[in-house]
Amino acid sequence: MRIDILTVFPDMLEGFFNCSMMARAQKAGLAKIHLHDIRDYTTDKHHKTDDYPFGGCAGLVMKIEPIDRLITDLKSQRNYDEVIYTSPDGEQFNQKIANSLSLLENVIILCGHYKGIDYRIREHLITREISIGDYVLTGGELAAAVMTDSIVRLIPGVLSDEQSALSDSFQDNLLAPPVYTRPAEYKGWKVPDVLLSGNQALIDEWEFQQSLERTKRLRPDLL
Ligand code: ADE
């Protein structure tokens, strides 16, 4: 899968995608993550990516030309399944959306900034608008990182144990059960006996009941 991220602050994302699982996924050739600086597609001498809004309201709006030029350039090289815009007024991102996006071949994610982007970009170039939650960030970069991370880790082979993506919280609308590691007792705090029993059927049943109980208590809306 290939994800092209369009931003005016590629440095914000560079480090994130060069670490840990995201770096591994790219090195293994399972995910291609390309960062594009929108500024490189400006044609004026000041490399302006934003301008004052028509109508006189406060704030700056991202200009249409560099973004259109960049998207057109990418589209001339391959077909894209989605051109996503990160925006607090988009549909709310969740595991179901992550699952469906992880099945796609090529995706563009455009990070917004300032007061937003010229609305014509949303009308003519964007195919999907996604928010990561009901709060406003200073820009879409963190949203793009959150989405890309949750999508890429679902690509088969990215996680060393593929089962671990399947047993994630939310994957089956249940929160994950508690997990423990050695030592089995610390300061008198004990790991539940069943997990040390070696009886897999009992352990599976305990984990399921724990998932159910935690979901009822913490996220009853998921049931
Ligand atoms: N840009 C600013 N706030 C955002 C949010 N909550 N989700 C996605 N993109 C954003």
Q: How is the topology of this model organized?
A:
Blueprint lengths: L1 E6 L2 H8 L2 H8 L4 E6 L12 E2 L9 E2 L1 H14 L4 E11 L2 H7 L4 E6 L7 H6 L3 E4 L9 H12 L9 H5 L18 E2 L2 E2 L9 H19 L5
Parallel strand pairs: 1-2, 1-6, 5-6, 5-7
Antiparallel strand pairs: 3-4, 8-9
What would your notes on this structure say?
The chain has 223 residues and is an alpha/beta fold. The protein folds into 2 domains: 2-152, Alpha/beta knot (3-Layer(aba) Sandwich); 167-222, Orthogonal Bundle (Trp Operon Repressor, Chain A), CATH 1.10.1270.20. Helices cover 35% and strands 18% of the residues. It has 8 helices and 9 strands. It has a 5-stranded parallel β-sheet, sandwiched between helices. A two-stranded antiparallel sheet has the order 3-4. The relative contact order is 0.15. Bound molecules: adenine. Adenine (ADE) binds at residues 86-88, 112, 131-133, 135-137, 140, 143.
